[in-house]
Design brief:
Elements: E1 2-6, H1 11-22, E2 27-31, H2 36-43, E3 51-54, E4 57-60, H3 62-71
Parallel strand pairs: 1-2
Antiparallel strand pairs: 1-3, 3-4
């Protein structure tokens, strides 16, 4: 499962959601403003959004999410990613 912390006015946050949908990846969307305390508890201080977790592993923002998808071989759309 992928968790994306972001806001609806952040273009990279929206792009992250669309990228997950493009690859049929299951994800949970969490508003970064409403879940700020939870996010800070998970990674400490952060400066940018989105902040993305893949199987509870913090991978970073949109650029890192793209890299993670590009470096993961196969299995897209099978519901196990």
């Amino acid at each position: 499962m992928i968790t994306i912390y972001g806001t609806e006015i952040c273009s990279y946050c929206i792009r992250s959601k669309k990228l997950a949908e493009q690859y049929n990846l299951k994800y949970e969307w969490k508003d970064a403003d409403e879940n700020e305390a939870e996010l800070k508890e998970r990674i400490g201080q952060y400066e940018t959004i989105p902040q993305i977790f893949w199987h509870d592993r913090h991978i970073g923002g949109y650029t890192e999410f793209v890299s993670e998808i590009e470096n993961t071989s196969g299995g897209y759309g099978d519901g196990n990613l």
